[in-house]
Every structure is written in C-alpha cells, then in structure tokens.
C-alpha cells in the first residue's frame, strides 16, 4: 500500500479510508446565518449587476453596520455568491505591453487633479460627450460637464476648473499649487485654458503622446462609468440620459466602493481622513 500511496501522491491513511469506505464525503461548509444574508446579497446584486463579491461585501457590511449587526467576511460572501450562481464571470483580457513612467496617485488630496473625457451612444444614435475632474488621492469627481451632439470645448474645461477650485477651497484660487493632469486634447492645451488654469493656482500637466495609462486614474473612472452605469441603464435618447448623469456621479461619490480606498466610497474616505486629521 505504501508504494501505491506514494505513486498516487496521497497519504496511506487517506488511501486506506477510501478503500474501506470509511471516508466521509465532504460537504459544502455553511453557517446558519447564511440564509439571512442571502436575500440581502441577492438584492444588492440585482441593483449592482456589475459589482464583484468584494464590492458587494462592502455594500452589505455598510447595511449591516447601519442595522447594528456584525459585518460579514468577504470570503463568506464569496462562498454564498458562488453557491447561488451570483459571481461575475471571469474575463481574460490580455494586459497591454505598453508601460508608462511616473506615479499618478498622491499622498493626500488636492495635490494632483486628473481630467479626461468620455463618450457613449444612446439607443437613438445620439452621442453624449463629457469630461470630468477627479482627485488623484481620494478619487472624488469634483466637477464635470456633459453635452449632446457636440464636443467638450475649452470653455467647458475652464468652467470645470473654476467649479473644482470653488468646491475644494471655497474661493477663486487655490492656497497652493495643484497639478492639473490631462491628455493633449485641444480643450486642455488651448492658450486660454492654460492661462486661466494658472490664474486659479493650477499647474497644467500633460500626458506623453500615445500613453493614456499615464492618466490612469481618469482612465479607470471612465471604465467604471461605462461598466457600472452606462451599460446597465436604459439610454433611449440624449435628453433622458443628460438628466441621469448627475445621479451617476453622485452615486459614485457617495456609494461606490473603491478598491484603492479600502472599499470605501470617495466621500466616506474623505470623511475618514478629516476625522483623523
């Protein structure tokens, strides 16, 4: 039996138990409270069909803490979702070979803001284009613009910059220099835009040509916007969609669990920073 066990790569006791029929079949592990968590998880998955188990765990624990209950471990949520076919399908996209230099994320808020544009098509073929400014540390969308059937102009970008400065600092100029990272699109590189940015206390910075990864914070948000909002929402026409976008950004800022923020939303992260400062 020793030779057979070594050949099969199992222990002799395991082999003996299998031959004698004394080995008990393993059953799926579960806790008695799983039945209470399942309806809550199913409701969250129905409302957020693009969320994986870690973000579902964050939303579930947010609700459990509000009810005064103990939070659930993410491994337990994974097990429940796996048992009931609620997990997202795995994707196997290849990673791009192109590398980029420099670090985008900052050690605190209001050191570097990033900006980029987005575009998607409504069901009636009308095109929505927009742009936004996001903080590279706390990931909050500070300001944004969206239009139908046209492009984002330099005036739109300047309005976003002013709105962002007012929102973060309560005035018309930053108390210290804030980097403003964007691509090389004409609304950002326009002479009037660069002059206006400096007047606000912003320092315009531009990504290298053909290197969108150099603005990875913005690129990541565009992916989140399209996956978690655009793809799961009816988009009949531009007028309807333009009324929805404000709610999307507000939901992202207040509710969307972010992996880089320890599964907190941007504003939860900001409140936690403020409390410990």
The strand line-up of the biggest sheet is 3-2-1-4-5
Cα(first) to Cα(last) distance is 66 Å
Mean pLDDT: 87
Helix content percent band? 40-55%
- Based on CA atoms alone, the radius of gyration comes out at 25 Å
Overall tally of structural domains: 2
Q: Using DSSP, what is the number of strands? A: 5
| Count of helical stretches | 11
- CATH topology type of the largest domain: Nucleotidyltransferase, domain 5
| CATH secondary-structure class of the largest domain | Alpha Beta
Name the beta content range: 5-15%
The ordered string of helix (H) and strand (E) elements is: HHHHHEEEHEHHEHHH
Q: Which parts are unreliable, with pLDDT below 50 for 5 consecutive residues or more?
A: 92-101
Dominant shape: elongated
Summing up helix and strand content along with how strands pair, one would put the structural category as alpha/beta
Task: Give the CATH superfamily of the largest domain.
Answer: Ribonuclease H-like superfamily/Ribonuclease H
Based on the structure given, which CATH architecture of the largest domain is correct? 2-Layer Sandwich
How would you characterize the largest beta sheet? 5 strands, mixed
InterPro entries: HTH-like_dom, Integrase_cat-core, RNaseH-like_sf, RNaseH_sf, Transpos_IS3, Transposase_IS3/IS150/IS904
Protein name: Transposase InsO family protein
Pfam families: HTH_21 (PF13276), rve_3 (PF13683)
Organism: Allosediminivita pacifica
Description:
This protein is α/β, with parallel strands linked by helices and 277 residues long. The protein folds into 2 domains: 32-84; 112-275, 2-Layer Sandwich (Nucleotidyltransferase, domain 5), CATH 3.30.420.10. Helix content is 46%, strand content 13%. It has 11 helices and 5 strands, in the order αααααβββαβααβααα. The protein has helices at 2-8, 12-20, 34-47, 53-66, 74-83, 154-169, 186-189, 191-200, 216-230, 238-254, 266-276, and strands at 112-121, 127-135, 141-148, 178-182, 202-206. It has a 5-stranded mixed sheet with strand order 3-2-1-4-5, sandwiched between helices. A hairpin with a 5-residue loop joins β2 (127-135) and β3 (141-148). α4 packs across α5 and α6 (154-169) packs parallel to α8. The longest helix has 17 residues, at 238-254. The radius of gyration is 25 Å and the shape is elongated.
């Amino acid at each position: 039996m020793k030779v057979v066990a070594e050949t099969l790569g199992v222990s002799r006791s395991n082999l003996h138990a299998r031959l004698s029929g004394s080995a008990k079949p393993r059953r799926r592990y579960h806790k008695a409270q799983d039945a209470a968590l399942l309806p809550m998880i199913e409701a969250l998955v129905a409302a957020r069909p693009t969320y994986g188990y870690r973000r579902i765990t964050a939303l579930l624990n947010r609700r459990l803490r509000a009810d005064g209950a103990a939070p659930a471990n993410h491994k337990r949520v994974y097990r429940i979702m796996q048992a009931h076919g609620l997990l997202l399908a795995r994707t196997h996209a290849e990673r791009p070979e192109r590398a980029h230099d420099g670090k985008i994320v900052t050690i605190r808020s209001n050191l570097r803001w990033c900006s980029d544009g987005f575009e998607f098509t409504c069901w009636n073929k009308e095109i929505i284009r927009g742009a936004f400014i996001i903080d590279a540390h706390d990931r909050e969308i500070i300001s944004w613009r969206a239009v139908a059937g046209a492009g984002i102009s330099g005036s739109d970008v300047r309005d976003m910059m002013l709105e962002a400065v007012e929102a973060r600092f309560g005035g018309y100029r930053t108390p210290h220099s804030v980097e403003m990272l964007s691509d090389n699109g004409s609304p950002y590189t326009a002479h009037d835009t660069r002059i206006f940015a400096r007047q606000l206390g912003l320092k315009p910075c531009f990504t290298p040509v053909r290197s969108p990864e150099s603005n990875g914070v913005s690129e990541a948000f565009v992916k989140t916007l399209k996956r978690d909002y655009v793809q799961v929402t009816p988009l009949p026409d531009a007028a309807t969609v333009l009324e929805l976008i404000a709610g999307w950004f507000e939901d992202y800022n207040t509710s969307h669990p972010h992996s880089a923020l320890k599964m907190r939303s941007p504003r939860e992260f900001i409140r936690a920073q403020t409390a410990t400062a």
